[in-house]
Amino acid sequence: MMHFTQYARVILTCLGTGLTTLTAGAQALSPAPVAAPDKEPVSLSGKVTARSGEAQGTPLPFASLTLVSLSTGTRQTTSADLMGRFAFTNLLAGGPYILQVQQPGFQAQTVTNMYLKADAATALDIDLSPATVAVGTRRDDRTALESAVPVDVVDIAALLRTVPQTDLTQLLHYTVPAFNSTRQTAAGGSDHVDPANLRGLGTDQMLVLVNGKRRHTTALVNLLSNRGLGSVGTDLNTLPSLGVERVEVLRDGAAAQYGSDAIAGVMNISLKNSNSDGSVLLNTGLTTEGDGLATLLGVNQGFRLGTKGFLNVTADADYRDRTARGYGRDPGVSPVFVVNDPAREQAALTAAGKTYNDFAQRNGDARVRNVRGLLNARVEASDRLAFYGFGGYNFRRGQASTLWVLPATQSADVVESLFPYGYQPQVNTRIHDGAGTLGVVLGQPGPNRWTLDVSNTTGYNRMTYDLENTLNASLGASSPTVFDNAGGFQFLQNVTNATANRFFDRALAGTNVAFGAEFRADRYQILRGDERTEAEYDLGLPNSQQGAQGFSGFGEASAVVGSRTNVGAFLDVEADVTKHWSVSGALRYENYSTFGSAFIYKATSRLEVARFLALRGAFNTGFRAPSLQQVLYRQITQRPGVTGVVYAGIFNNQDELRVQAGVPDLTPERSRNVSGGLVFTPSSAFSFTADAYLIDIDDRITLSGLLRPGFGISPALTQTLANSRVSQAQFFTNDLDTRTQGVDLVANYRHAFGAGQFSATAAGNFTRTRTRRLNVPATFRSLQEDDDPTTNYVDPRQLSLIETGNPASKILLGLNYTLGKVGLGLRNTYFGEVRYYDVAPDPAVYDFGGYLLVFRPRTVTDLTVSVQATKGLSISAGAQNLFNVKPNTLDQAASNGEAPGGFATRAQFEAYYQNRYSAPSPFPTNRDVYPYAPVQMGFNGALVYLKAVYSLGL
């Protein structure tokens, strides 16, 4: 197998050759279509200007223009000068030609079927429309830089053609500093659904829209993940990236405008709406360790519907294989055959003809297969009536591994009869996700005209589990080793929405008024699986023998179904007081059938103090009701322990056990968000924005700590836990008031450099979350106030994941240079420090908590080389994480952090443990078989890839 350094050497050698070629032979790479000797050459010239708004008729310097000759397949690229003027010379008369014009902040424009006269120069003036945004405003003419709140606009259609990533979550993770998403491992269902968040807040505090309509969440509650623990998010990867035109990320609270869940911000995914263009995408990649093969094939095509309508269709299929990193089983920590007896352990290994490599833990990405379809359509029935619809479906098959079950900790007779050398259970999922929207727009768009948009959106997510290579020890030697149905859950959401909108051009300097109403119905269900998987299937065995190992399924007590409704109404007014000062305000009222009502509001202002400088600010209140999943979720789960598997119950808000425990009813989260910033645009080639924010959240919902018999809970509760056949219990509870504050910085620059086009983007997010108050019920205050961190009502691990479990900073630097048919891209992503507590050991065995793990900052580099091979085919190749950077291992993070039990150093703690227990410390938990955790950017290391895009219809 080729070592990574060899891969890097090959790539860098190719780059060196490519750069030399670019410098020495630019004209050879992109020759203009030269006139034949007997024909006079012709030219094309013109001017690029802004089409609308105050900048109407203003020249746009440095706009990028590409001229393609369809008859010869050649292309020529140039840039407009300071006055927006451009010229192509030495061209062939005739055609057809295609001219593509691009400028940051404006919508790209393509002129097709163009012919050049043989006897005269051709003049062509291009007016570009501003690239407006759909979030943060209900006006149809606001650009991102004109917005009173910060909005990131990510051109997915262009980005996807060249960069290594293909999933939406990964594309955004390396493009938007305030957005974070890492693939999880050994995290149950979260191995198959990537949790994501914004500004370091919860996965469930970012609202996702598709074409401006609310997207449903998943049925999954993240329970074992490092990111989004205890929350429910939206699975962005159910949408094929090839069908997405762009993504707008509103980095400001917007619950008053769009509804609850928008505490951290809003993401709007705009689908492609072309009625003629299309493309085929083929992507394949492989890590330099030789695993993680990823292949994606997608097709997108637009069709005309009527004179002005469109139907845009996308389908793709992708496969991503497993990865595993860093396994190194320590027999003192995780023995295979014999505990605390190295001689007997080695003898058993020798007798079995095995080595520790035969028991390697798969600790990386799960194997995932996706099939996705997406469509977006609109029909203009008349000037005052339009119908639209969009929707899609995703089927995903996921296969992940859990901890080995070994003879050293398992019932000998069962293991010997079915798995004489132990087994590594496989937890697999089947995910069905679908959504559809139908709507109608009444009225004619334009100033002083009302429009009414009425729509209905239905979304559905279902995840079920099946198991392989496992057993239920309570069934003895007759246990199946494959369980086709371990249960699951499903979530259904229906949203009916009506919005009226009108722009009054004579009210002040222009005023937009919108109002509307929304009705939402949610339904959630936990599906019972095969009873043979259940942890409570047999009452005659100890906990360590109950249930299918790896995943104990959903039993009869877990099966639950519930629903709720929500009615909301809003008023949104946005006014230009003068040409240089705009203000807006939004009011919203919501009423939940289960949580009562809320009144929230938002106010913004933007002042242009100079032609090149504007100040902006906003204040808003927010509201997020507990998700139906958090209200109803109940399951008996397996947790790895030093002495074997232990069983814990998560009991829902309706369970009698919650009342006996003295845990209060769940209530909604409420927030206050204030932000302020500036927009600096000294020229059309450069822009800079800086925005500071402060977000206070009251009654934040988390999972409580693990409550255990004998550790501060009442005898009655201890007996109730025993009756439920669990040794630990958790509840969803409003136990935190937090404050998040930070700064977002974004700079963009574009300039003609030599014969090519250079662009640079630098952006950073710096954020910090702290707990303002712990809301601990009176029954458990003694647990929280004592010196034992293992019995806290507020779990130290989850608290640390909320406060410091996201990178403290994230900085992006992207450099791109295009010369003729060749493009070169270099992206560096700096991830700041992450710190959180390790899983606390069982207090029945140990009297200390877990390590505070500290993961030092890391920088990841992506490199891309792209070539326009033919008029329709572009090819990209390069490396993701070129220098094979990985996060700290758990061992390293423990050494970087703080030792348990108040010891000053790790060495002191390890010596104490050795002396007391006559064995090496097994902490941090599973450090030998799961040496890496997916913190800042995952731990697969370098990946080389090849991507080809063929444009249809050229």
From TrEMBL:
Residue ranges of every copy of the TonB-dependent receptor-like beta-barrel domain listed in the record: 395-882
Entry's Gene Ontology cellular component terms: cell outer membrane
Gene3D superfamilies: Carboxypeptidase-like, regulatory domain (2.60.40.1120), TonB-dependent receptor, beta-barrel domain (2.40.170.20), TonB-dependent receptor, plug domain (2.170.130.10)
Annotated membrane topology: Multi-pass membrane protein
Compartment list: Cell outer membrane
Main location: membrane
Record-linked InterPro entries: Beta-barrel_TonB (IPR000531), Beta-barrel_TonB_sf (IPR036942), CarboxyPept-like_regulatory (IPR008969), Plug_dom (IPR012910), Plug_dom_sf (IPR037066), TonB-dep_rcpt-like (IPR039426)
Keywords of this entry: Cell outer membrane, Membrane, Signal, TonB box, Transmembrane, Transmembrane beta strand, Transport
Domain TonB-dependent receptor plug span(s) in chain numbering: 146-266
Signal peptide: 1-26
PANTHER family: PTHR47234, SECRETIN_TONB SHORT N-TERMINAL DOMAIN-CONTAINING PROTEIN
UniProt record similarity statement: Belongs to the TonB-dependent receptor family.
Protein name: Iron complex outermembrane recepter protein
